[in-house]
């Protein structure tokens, strides 16, 4: 008997049971998206058409790069993205400033304006989360000076983000404890963790300890990925992840984004549909 038939029969008998676990809620509440760079269309409105073909509910949009001066800061470009989102019925879920990996927020003054401007862009696009990337040249591990610089910058910008209802999400290789320390020192509800299970595991962190420690209130959004592999073919126990997210009450309220979970040169649409099929097996 299929699970759906079983649930239906149990309900008919008046026997209460949970109908959806964490990842299954994504399909019920349409909270599953993908990063536009993982769809082969970074900061490109055509990402919405790819997401539509896959069957995704949303797209996380990269604001651009230094060569186009982070073009989503332009109102005309924002209108193009909003139009494409409306045409495809695929939502803009959140923003990301990926260029911070190349031009570090922790040390390059140009990035101060980028992060400040992202608040207005997010508001114009109707989203609540901006991902701040801290990898490559912006890596914060073993860099106390860099961390202090980031704390100082976030303290300055946090009041504006808070006023506008925008969350700035820190995605990094730092531990949950280190993220919480940054948040405590900035002292603003506008600063949260953008959690990535693969990144945390690669850094040697205990992801299940971290999910519990951070809890729902300190995580603004998450990435689901297995770099260069399909979900379920790496060493992350996604069923256990699903259970852990359900325990903290996460998935019923916030977006989850597929990122970099395809073998090299695999078709974007077919590959992401394969990942969706895997997620549907989790219960």
From TrEMBL:
SUPFAM superfamilies tied to this protein: Xylose isomerase-like
Gene Ontology molecular function terms on file: isomerase activity
Name the UniProt record assigns to this protein: Sugar phosphate isomerase/epimerase
Keyword Phosphoprotein: no
Domain of life: Bacteria
Domain Xylose isomerase-like TIM barrel as annotated: residue spans: 48-262
Species: Lacihabitans soyangensis
Keyword Isomerase tagged: yes
Keyword annotations of the record: Isomerase
């Amino acid at each position: 008997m299929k699970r759906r038939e079983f649930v239906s029969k149990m309900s008919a008998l008046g026997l209460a049971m949970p109908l959806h676990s964490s990842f299954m809620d994504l399909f019920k509440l349409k909270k599953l998206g993908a990063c536009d760079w993982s769809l082969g269309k970074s900061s490109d409105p055509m990402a919405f058409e790819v997401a539509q073909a896959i069957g995704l509910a949303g797209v996380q949009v990269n604001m651009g790069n230094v060569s186009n001066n982070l073009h989503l800061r332009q109102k005309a470009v924002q209108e193009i993205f909003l139009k494409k989102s409306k045409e495809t019925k695929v939502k803009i879920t959140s923003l990301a400033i990926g260029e911070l990996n190349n031009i570090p927020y922790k040390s390059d003054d140009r990035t101060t304006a980028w992060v400040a401007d992202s608040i207005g862009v997010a508001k114009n696009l109707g989203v609540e989360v901006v991902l701040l990337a801290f990898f490559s040249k912006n890596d914060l591990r073993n860099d106390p000076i860099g961390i202090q610089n980031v704390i100082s910058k976030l303290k300055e910008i946090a009041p504006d983000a808070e006023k506008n209802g925008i969350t700035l999400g820190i995605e990094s290789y730092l531990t949950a404890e280190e993220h919480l320390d940054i948040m405590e020192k900035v002292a603003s509800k506008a600063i949260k963790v953008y959690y990535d299970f693969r990144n945390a595991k690669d850094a040697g962190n205990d992801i299940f300890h971290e999910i519990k420690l951070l809890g729902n209130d300190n995580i603004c959004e998450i990435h689901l990925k297995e770099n260069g592999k399909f979900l379920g073919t790496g060493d992350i126990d996604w069923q256990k992840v699903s259970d852990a997210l359900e325990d903290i009450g996460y998935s019923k309220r916030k977006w989850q984004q597929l990122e970099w979970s395809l073998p090299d040169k695999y078709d974007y649409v077919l590959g992401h549909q394969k990942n969706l099929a895997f997620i549907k097996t989790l219960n």
